[in-house]
Amino acid sequence: MTPPRARTWRRAGKRAGARGFTLVEVLVALMVVALGLTALMLAVSGTATASGILRDKAIAEWIGLNRIIEVRLNLQKLGTNTDKGELDFANRHWRYDTQYFDTEIPTMRRVVVRVWPGSAAEKASPVGEFVGFLSTSLGSPGNSNTVDWTTGSLPVTTGGGRNGQGQQNQGGTTTVLPGPTQPTPTPTPTPNTSPK
C-alpha cells in the first residue's frame, strides 16, 4: 500500500482536465517578448539618432547659406583664400570655414562654406558643405537680359596686390573687376500719327 502523500502527488500529475503552461513554455514566451522589445528599442533609438542628424544638417544648411549671403552682401570682408569663424545658433556652438576659389570667368569666384558643430574635432568631416558663386557681373533681380555676359575684365598696368578690387596676374598687371552694370532703359515706341 502506498502512503497518502504519494497518492496525492500521483493524482495531481495525472489530472485529465488540468490546463496550464510548463516552465519551459513560460521561458520560451519570455525570450520571444524580450527579443521583440529589444528590436523595438533599437528601432526607436535609430529613429531618434536619425532625427538628431537631420536637425544638425538643417541647422548647418541655414548657417552655410547665411554665410554665403553675408559674403555676397560684403558684410564680411573677402579673405584671400579662406577664413574661419564661430557662432552660436539654435542654442549650440558652431564653426564654419569659408574658402574662395577662382573660376574660368575672371569676374566670378566660387565660395565654399563648410560647417561643423562646435564640439567636433578639428579634422572631423563637416556636417554640411555649401557652394555659392560671387560675381560683379550680376545685375539686379529680374534684369538678367540687360547684363552683357560676354564682357570680361579690364587689364590695368599698375602693380599692386589684392585689395578687393583687383587681382594680381603673373605679368604684373592687375585685373580690375568691373562694378555691377546698370540696366539701360528700353525706349518706348511712339505711335505713328502720320496720315495715310
Helix content: 25-40%
What is the CATH C-level name of the domain at 26-139? Alpha Beta
Named CATH topology of the domain at 26-139: Pantoate--beta-alanine Ligase, Chain: A,domain 2
The DSSP helix count reads 2
- Estimate the strand proportion: 15-25%
User: pLDDT average, as an integer?
Assistant: 75
- CATH architecture level-2 label of the domain at 26-139: 2-Layer Sandwich
Neighbour order of strands in the largest sheet: 1-2-3-4
Q: What do you see in this structure?
A:
With 196 residues, the chain is of the alpha+beta class. Strands 1-2-3-4 form a four-stranded antiparallel beta sheet, with helices on one face. Helix content is 31%, strand content 23%. The chain has helices at 4-13, 23-72, and strands spanning 82-89, 92-102, 108-117, 128-135, 154-156, 166-168, 174-176. It has a domain at 26-139: GSPII I/J protein-like (Pantoate--beta-alanine Ligase, Chain: A,domain 2). The model is unreliable at 160-178 (pLDDT under 50). It has two helices and seven strands.
Structural features:
alpha+beta; elongated; four-stranded antiparallel beta sheet; 23% strand; Pantoate--beta-alanine Ligase, Chain: A,domain 2; three-stranded antiparallel beta sheet; 31% helix; 196 residues
Short description:
The protein is α+β, with helices and mostly antiparallel strands and 196 residues long. Helix content is 31%, strand content 23%.
Question: What layout of secondary structure does this protein have?
Answer:
Layout: H1 4-13, H2 23-72, E1 82-89, E2 92-102, E3 108-117, E4 128-135, E5 154-156, E6 166-168, E7 174-176
Antiparallel strand pairs: 1-2, 2-3, 3-4, 5-7, 6-7
